[in-house]
Design a protein that fits this description.
The chain is mostly helical. It has four domains: about 130 residues; about 160 residues; about 160 residues, Tetracycline Repressor, domain 2; about 150 residues, Methane Monooxygenase Hydroxylase, Chain G, domain 1. The protein is built from 25 helices and no strands. It comes from Galdieria sulphuraria. This is COG4 transport protein middle alpha-helical bundle domain-containing protein.
Length: about 725
């Protein structure tokens, strides 16, 4: 009985438990039904809101249309215009609402696709949909509150969007450890992060990745330099190599990312990337230059001013190479920055002028200028002390000082040009001007004074000559050496100026920089003018020494008569020929040996000077003579012989222009009658002859003919 009772109790408990479970399910179902009812009511409310909005706008449009028709029937023009404007406004509002609803449906669709792609692990497609959501949000920012009510969620703070960003961050972090090989992969993930709204973070992550790669690439060469244990000459090459590697690394990343950032990101990020890369370059570059300066002991430049020029030459070549590569890097980055910099932004040239790397380079440049000035002065001083004349027989007489000096000057200026710094170039050119005026020109002036005062033979001239030379010839040859040296100075200087002009125009596009260089080059031209003035002075001394011997050969002309009788004409012509031959022979003895010793242009200038002296001397004698027809004929032969003699001496050009006055004089003396002058003395505009003689001189020449009447000459219309 008790067992049956217990069984009944158990049955009741089981039944009660089942009833409780069913009741709980009913309550839960009732709650769900209540929630669904609320959601349905909310949806109906939203639909009713949209419907009411559309109904109201449609009713407004219909009302405006009715009013418009009524106004048209009553034909009140003011009412028609007002109703037409109102009708247009209501129609536009209806279109805007319709477009907004389409945007809401598009947003819900894109959001659904984003969730689907992200859940399947399709990260790239998810980023595309997230970017589309951002675009829709930006385009409809003014209506976002209304859209959020319709969609019941905010896409920009959606949980899936946060998960997507975190996944991208993790991918970037994982790829960073792979180094340069992962550049493209990291860049793509950073672009994805940029597209989903994290612009600043994406840029910083990508930039940090690039800086980490640069640090890894430079870690090995920099660690070797930081040890500072190597004292061999290779250490300076390692410094330059490491600096070059730094510039190439920064420049390559700047070039690679120009197209990327301007295409996939916004224009403002590329200048930021360049400036951050430049900051890294400043840090590492300044450290490398400090290590180099310490190795070369450039903190104390004075110690180098007692160093041999050969060792100094090596150090300055290294400094020029450092400056050249640094400035080439600056120009590359500055051009990139100028291309993408916004108007009104910081001037890029100022940005580089004030950077740490430029300040370190300026310290190097300051040391270089002092060293180069010392190198130039000492090298030219040494060249002057070792000056000697070529001992090869039959060669042009020059000494070694010009070639040695201009080799040093050209080397210094071209090295300064390699610095890619116009201030450095101008400083070295100014020092060149000073050295040329103070040392080179001073040396030539002292040598000229010694030559003119000394009448002793020198060992160098005796060793040059094949036979003993008299004192006068030694002095003449010293003048020849100076004349040739000064000519070479001018020629080398003009070549250097031409090279500077061409090279500076190619390198400088700014007019102000070009004017700065041309100003100091103008000073260099002035220095060369001083060499030319001295060249003219020496040429005059040389001419004076030669003419002092030739003047005696013209003395027979003063005693010679030009009033010849026909029966003794042959003997007089032979006497004239004897005078000419004597002059030519004496000229060859005094001057002929200089032809092989003088530079061609110097030889031609000397011949022209001698021809000018001869023509002037002959003319001064002939003005005191009297002529008959036979004497005039003999004079014409003499002048032609002398002219031909000098003309055959020059190697280029002619000297006939020097004898023009004498030719015109003999032409007048050989006229048959004074009145023939009317045929050849024409008015200024009809002249075929360039007269060197004035009208008064023509009358004086005609009066030298004994056969011509002074009355006829006086009445000539000249």
């Amino acid at each position: 009985m008790s067992q049956e009772t217990l069984s009944q109790e158990d049955m009741d408990k089981i039944l009660e438990r089942e009833i409780s479970q069913v009741t709980a399910k009913l309550v839960d179902m009732d709650q769900k039904i209540h929630i669904l009812a609320e959601q349905l009511a909310a949806k109906e409310e939203r639909q009713r809101t949209i419907f009411d909005l559309l109904t109201t706008q449609v009713w407004d449009v219909e009302t405006e249309s009715t009013d418009f028709e009524l106004s048209w029937k009553t034909f009140h023009i003011e009412d028609i215009c007002n109703n037409l404007s109102s009708f247009h406004l209501q129609s536009c509002r209806l279109e805007e609402t319709q477009q907004l609803l389409k945007t809401a449906m598009k947003t819900r669709e894109v959001l659904s696709q984003l969730r689907s792609c992200f859940s399947r692990g399709h990260l790239k497609e998810a980023v595309d949909h997230a970017s589309e959501l951002r675009r829709l949000s930006c385009e409809n920012s003014a209506q976002m509150e209304f859209l959020e009510k319709i969609l019941e969620e905010q896409p920009v703070v959606d949980e899936e969007l946060h998960s997507l960003k975190n996944s991208l961050r993790q991918y970037i972090k994982d790829s960073t450890s792979k180094g340069y090989d992962a550049v493209s992969q990291v860049y793509e993930h950073c672009v994805d992060l940029f597209r989903v709204g994290e612009e600043e973070e994406a840029f910083e992550l990508y930039l940090s990745f690039l800086l980490n790669i640069i640090q890894k690439e430079l870690s090995d060469p920099l660690s070797k330099l930081r040890q500072k244990g190597d004292t061999s000459s290779r250490f300076s090459s390692q410094c330059i190599s490491c600096l070059t590697q730094l510039y190439e690394c920064i420049a390559s990343y700047a070039d690679e990312n120009e197209g990327r950032l301007t295409k996939d990101w916004s224009e403002q990020y590329y200048p930021l990337l360049l400036k951050r890369l430049q900051s890294v370059c400043n840090e590492y570059g300044a450290e490398i230059l400090d290590i180099y300066r310490h190795f070369r002991h450039l903190e104390n430049t004075q110690s180098y001013l007692t160093t041999e020029t050969r060792q100094l030459d090596v150090v300055m070549d290294e400094m020029a190479l450092i400056s050249q590569r640094t400035n080439a890097y600056f120009h590359f980055i500055q051009n990139k920055l100028d291309k993408h910099n916004n108007p009104g932004a910081l001037e890029t040239s100022k940005f580089f002028r004030e950077c740490l790397l430029q300040r370190k380079l300026d310290e190097l440049i300051s040391a270089y200028i002092s060293m180069e000035n010392y190198f130039m002065a000492e090298s030219i001083k040494k060249a002057i002390s070792l000056d000697e004349i070529s001992k090869d027989s039959g060669t042009i007489l020059v000494s070694t000082v010009v070639d040695d000096c201009f080799f040093v000057i050209q080397k210094s200026i071209k090295r300064a040009f390699a610095f890619e710094n116009n201030d450095v170039l101008c400083a070295i050119i100014n020092e060149t001007n000073a050295v040329m005026s103070r040392q080179a020109l001073g040396f030539f002036k002292n040598r000229l004074v010694q030559t003119l005062m000394s009448q002793k033979e020198t060992n160098r001239i005796e060793s040059y000559a094949s036979k003993p030379l008299d004192k006068s010839r030694n002095v003449t040859q010293q003048l020849v050496v100076l004349l040739n040296n000064l000519h070479n100075c001018e020629e080398y200087g003009e070549r250097l100026i031409g090279w500077l002009d061409t090279a500076s125009r190619k390198r400088n596009s700014a007019a102000s920089e070009l004017e700065k260089i041309q100003s100091v080059v103008g000073d260099l031209k002035d220095a060369l003018k001083a060499f030319h003035s001295m060249w003219e002075e020496i040429l005059e001394h040389l001419k004076t020494r030669i003419t002092s011997k030739l003047v005696r050969t013209l003395e027979p002309l003063q005693q010679m008569s030009f009033i010849l009788q026909e029966d003794n004409l042959l003997g007089d012509l032979e006497a004239s020929s004897s005078f000419i031959y004597n002059f030519m022979e004496q000229f060859d003895n005094s001057v002929g040996y200089l032809e092989n010793l003088l530079i061609d242009s110097n030889w031609d200038q000397l011949i022209r000077q001698m021809a000018d002296w001869t023509a002037a001397h002959l003319e001064s004698i002939l003005w005191r003579k009297k002529f008959n027809s036979h004497g005039a004929l003999r004079l014409d032969n003499d002048i032609r012989s002398i002219t031909s003699f000098f003309n055959n001496k020059v190697k280029q050009g002619t000297v006939r222009d020097i004898f023009t006055r004498l030719f015109q004089l003999t032409m007048l003396l050989n006229l048959e009658s004074p009145t023939e002058i009317d045929d050849i003395w024409q008015r200024e505009e009809d002249k075929h002859i360039r007269w060197k003689l004035t009208a008064e001189e023509v009358r004086e020449v005609l009066s030298l003919r004994t056969e011509f009447s002074s009355e006829t000459i006086r009445h000539l219309s000249l």
